[in-house]
Amino acid sequence: MKNIGFLSFGHWSDAPGSQVRSASDALLQSIDLAVAVEELGADGAYFRVHHFAQQLGSPFPLLSAIGAKTSRIEIGTGVIDMRYENPLYMAEDAGAADLISEGRLQLGISRGSPEQVIEGYKYFGYLPGDDQSDADMARQHTGVFLKVLEGEGFARPNPQPMFPNPPGLLRVEPHSPTLRDRIWWGAGSRATAEWTARQGLNLMSSTLLTEDTGVPFHQLQAEQIHRFRDEWKAQGFDREPRVSVSRSIFALTSDTDRAYFGRERGGSDQVGHIDGGVARFGKSYADEPDKLIEQLREDEAIAAADTLLLTVPNQLGVDYNAHVIESILTEVAPALGWR
């Protein structure tokens, strides 16, 4: 059995064929798609965060709106770039969004991906220290964020406050007491997956790994997951961690499906460069349901994960994306034991 959700990059453009032509379209359709997939029986709605781009950049208003409009599905991010974040303000926003959704927030965070602009975090007011990289700064922000989520007081109260204070040091409010266990780290390598386990974070792994050992992507990603779980066990944590992988998967059940994605049949991994290093990119899956089932049965990383996020072509509109997800839920997932 697997949790099955979608991951949207929230693109918008006025290009021909786009059903998402503005930021307003992207936000409102994201809410509508989350409501639709909850009705279909899916388990989650996740959103990618990119700054300086025609994509979803400020996740918490969107997550809060979805939390208010739905009642069951998980809502989350995949991922928030921690180089850009004020950890305390983020803890306030995350706590509010989690309380609105009654504890359904699953927050994916990370160092982030290649940016649209050069050192964009500087425009947000954040600079690495003299002996820091931007990745170090992201982890430093993360450490503060996680500490604040524990809910212990740390700020000295004003002896003459506007409103009465509780005794002792004060914490950031609103506080969601269980949110700390629902934070995920987007890891791009096996070593980072082990670091993720040591922090007590859930593991989020995408269709990109920032290393290449010559084995197929799904096998390298499965090794990453196994290393994460081994390290988690070694740390002796008293809860079971979550692991998600994302995939582009399209069941070709109509002429429209074949027109959009038929050319992606028989896809393969790709090896390239990102941020100056070698990276391996996972393939997309597109085929008739019976053939798709056999291909997915061989994916070792999907088998090792408890959560599968289906990347969706959001610019094709709510109805078509709901159809894409429904096709996986009804035509593919039962045969693989995911439902």
From TrEMBL:
<dbReference type="GO" id="GO:0005829">
    <property type="term" value="C:cytosol"/>
</dbReference>
<dbReference type="InterPro" id="IPR011251">
    <property type="entry name" value="Luciferase-like_dom"/>
</dbReference>
<dbReference type="InterPro" id="IPR036661">
    <property type="entry name" value="Luciferase-like_sf"/>
</dbReference>
<feature type="domain" description="Luciferase-like">
    <location>
        <begin position="14"/>
        <end position="257"/>
    </location>
</feature>
<dbReference type="GO" id="GO:0016705">
    <property type="term" value="F:oxidoreductase activity, acting on paired donors, with incorporation or reduction of molecular oxygen"/>
</dbReference>
<dbReference type="InterPro" id="IPR050766">
    <property type="entry name" value="Bact_Lucif_Oxidored"/>
</dbReference>
<protein>
    <submittedName>
        <fullName>Luciferase-like protein</fullName>
    </submittedName>
</protein>
<dbReference type="Pfam" id="PF00296">
    <property type="entry name" value="Bac_luciferase"/>
</dbReference>
